[in-house]
Request: fold
Amino acid sequence: MSATTPEAAQPTFARHPLRLTLNAQDRQFEVLPWTTLLDLLREQLDLIGTKKGCDHGQCGACTVLLNGKRVNACLTLAVMCDGGELITIEGLATGDELHPMQQAFIKHDAFQCGYCTPGQICSAVGLVNEGRAHTPDEIRELMSGNLCRCGAYSNIRDAIEEALPACLQLGQGGGR
Ligand code: FES
Ligand code: FES
Reply:
């Protein structure tokens, strides 16, 4: 019986080219076909503002904005984002000036431990882009995919309600 070489035991896999506009910068990467967007952000790019909660699409902690729409990065393969415009929590502010949604979260004390907060804020910005939330009840319903174990829901809803007009005035919910 012939011995197996270490090289034979570790097959190599083709990496796929990926182009992204990431937080307003054109970037190019090579990724394995099964790499999730969440793992690309956190493990390859050190953008750890985007959180990994359940890793199964159930908590919303990993929410980012892809072409202005909120997506769960844990359920999105990185290769699916080729050519897209991606905004993470790190890309919402303009220099030292926070995005109105970030300002509103601070003003309304809309977090406790903060773990869900980047996902909540990105999801709220995506909600503005969708143009569907006009009342507190609609905000609550359309933010129901973002869980908060600290139970800061009423403050989160108040923050979003206050930030809606300012975000709409910007003409978008995403990066500026
Ligand atoms: Fe993606 Fe929970 S980590 S939805
Ligand atoms: Fe702690 Fe939401 S602030 S999970």
